[in-house]
Write a structure and sequence with these properties.
By secondary structure, the protein is mostly beta strands. It has no helices and eleven strands. The strands form two sheets. Strands 2, 4, 5, 6, 9, 10 and 11 form a seven-stranded mixed sheet that branches. It has a four-stranded antiparallel sheet with strand order 1-3-8-7, with no helix packed on it.
């Protein structure tokens, strides 16, 4: 079992920035992929950004050019740098880890609220 602990959420004004962190309880060096998802009330959890060990990175279209995902294997941590935030970025952000293609784990979520 892998524990994922998110931090860095909060309330920010539109056009502001936040950096989310996700600390894993185990080494992520060989993890197949890690990423961030967002969920709003009444909606399904949606992919925001995902980074693979091989280097491939995927972003949801609305965050391209504004959000940057990165991973620091030495700290077992994945980051999501969010800039030019918009009210529609508001939601609970969940850290996601896929150590192998056949299993996955989720963090408890951190709230991000962007005011207009």
């Amino acid at each position: 079992q892998v524990q994922l602990v998110e931090s860095g959420g909060g309330l920010v004004q539109a056009e502001g920035s936040l950096r989310l962190s996700c600390a894993a309880s185990a080494s992520i060096f060989r993890y197949h992929a890690m990423g961030w998802y967002r969920q709003t009330p009444g909606a399904q959890r949606q992919l925001v950004a995902r980074i693979y060990t091989a280097g491939t990175i995927n972003y949801e279209d609305s965050v391209k050019g504004r959000f940057t995902i990165s991973r620091d294997n030495s700290k077992n941590t994945v980051y999501l740098q969010m800039t030019s935030l918009k009210p529609e970025d508001t939601g609970v952000y969940y850290c996601w880890a896929r150590p192998t293609p056949w299993n996955e784990f989720w963090g408890q979520g951190t709230q991000v609220t962007v005011s207009s």
